[in-house]
Task: structure prediction
Amino acid sequence: MRATQRLHDLGQSLWLDNITRQLLMDGTLRHYINEFSVTGLTSNPTIFDHAIKNGAAYDSAIRQKRAEGKSGEALFFDLALGDLTQAADLFRPIYDRTGGVDGWASLEVSPLLANDTTSTIAAAGQLHARAQRPNLFIKIPGTPEGVPAIEASILAGVPINVTLLFSAEQYIAAAEAYMQGIERRLAAGLDPRVDSVASLFVSRWDVAVKDVVPHELRNRLGIAVAKRTYKAYCDLLASPRWRALVAAGARPQRLLWASTGTKDPDASDTLYIEALAAPDTINTIPDRTLLAFAEHGHLRGLMPVDGGDAEHTLAAFRLIGVDDAALATQLQREGTASFDKSWQDLLACIASKSAMLEHVAHTNASQR
Result:
């Protein structure tokens, strides 16, 4: 049995951290579902930027959208919704079979709205309505401005993937927003079942401190933060407040591990997959890491519900001057800025590709 199947059997979902039109067209995504137990996927601006820039799979669609007068964000969201609704349809049997626990795709609101709560709420609702798929999450960052947008979107019945979380405290704020949204729905006599996941970014912690930590602490900070957050997640699942919501018909917001590809060339290429094995969670995984784990990955036990050695490890980092609370805030700010840059790069890529296709079309027409 493949390691991916064993991970699935213990109760953790494996979602692909990638989406391209080529993956959909050539059967690769279906192969991942059938052979590697992949049960969902996530997307982000960088993924789309690379896919559009480095291939021709989107060229005909860009020509068509340009002919319709589309450009910029409007053109991109047409492309993205085309891919993600197709992916959602591919995962729909899994969604139906699991009663909606699994089988999801995710689409991000414009990162340019990260500091605009009202516009984020509006954009999330519009994207979900356009998709017309029950198994499409809309991604909203768990920033201070994003948290109220999460609550309002849940109240409006929009399934939310909370992104850019870097600490247990940031996770708890996102979970609190989710619960408040559900409680407000119950108070209004609305269906309390609105699904959500909360995405904790892991490997970026280790990248941030790689030049200041001794060898024995390399690649241990992200996992320690994840263990602490998993304890907070388990504590919340067991809390009277959460159990009351579940009894009323709500679904628990699942914890999702993001940024789980190994960045250190000297570390195992399956480091974070093996360390983050935990029931009732999700691991989003890049293609290369998925294939590596399927080929030679091992399950080395489950994450401890009590956090294990997390506090001891975090204390060791504090002794060498790493302030994990301050770093969590810094990483979230940097993540927001990175997503913003990726978005600008994506829009520039679409503009460049559009201009190139129009030039080719004009040249071909003049040669006839």
